Amino acid sequence: MACGNWSRIDLQAEPGVAYVAIPRAGTGTLRALLRKLHAWPTASTVDFPHSHACTLRELLETHRARRVLVPLRPLHERVVSFFERSRRRNCRPPAFNPACAYPGIVHFMPALKQRYLDAGAERFVRWLRGDARRSVPDLLQPTAAYLNVNWTPNGSAVRFVCTHALRKQVVQALRRWGIPDAEHAWDGVANRHVTNTRVRLSNASLTFLRTRFAEDYALVRRHGCGS
To answer: Which domain holds residue 191?
Structure first.
């Protein structure tokens, strides 16, 4: 069951807040925050749920979540963040092999290897552009896939928050929902789960992503997110 691990907590009990784990959008930080709100210790053997297969619709309908946070970040930033993290991890899983793997000879030339890995996100988008039938790997699914498209959630139960303003907007959402101590919710929670991307995709790649995933970019614009 895609959303099954959420059954570990009672989503209708206080503070009754869940989140949609959209990869490379600051969800690691949200997880730490909600772990604290639910009074779960960091080293808990039963961790706060963090499933990339769990959708907003499932949380609200199947698990009866009262309030859900949905982080938004432009897809091109998520793509670059994914590969920059992979580069730092020397392309260990869950890196996407077609874009992250490098020729064997490059391994012996650190400077060239660095440039090759920096270009991973660009190669990945070119790979997508090369065949319209290709699908995005699970960890880079567009945000719309996590919401269940063509479905409008209850606005009072869902708050969209921009990754680049996560701290400010989450505090605002918690305050609106009447969560106790919303002002101090972030105390001790480091906003360290977002890679500040330094690599820029080509204009052709940006245009392709904005065209192919227009619904995602419309969602980001609607909520004032993006660079």
So the answer is: 4-74+138-195+214-222
* Residue 63 within a domain: yes
pTM of the model: 0.86
Q: Is residue 181 part of a domain?
A: yes
209: pLDDT strictly greater than 90: yes
191 vs 9: CA distance, rounded Å: 24
Domain count, the chain: 1
Report the distance separating Cα 172 and Cα 10, nearest Å.
23
Q: What is the pLDDT of residue 36?
A: 82
Neighbours of 151 (CB within 10 A): 11
In a domain, 56, yes or no: yes
Rounded to whole angstroms, the Cα distance separating 89 from 105 reads 19
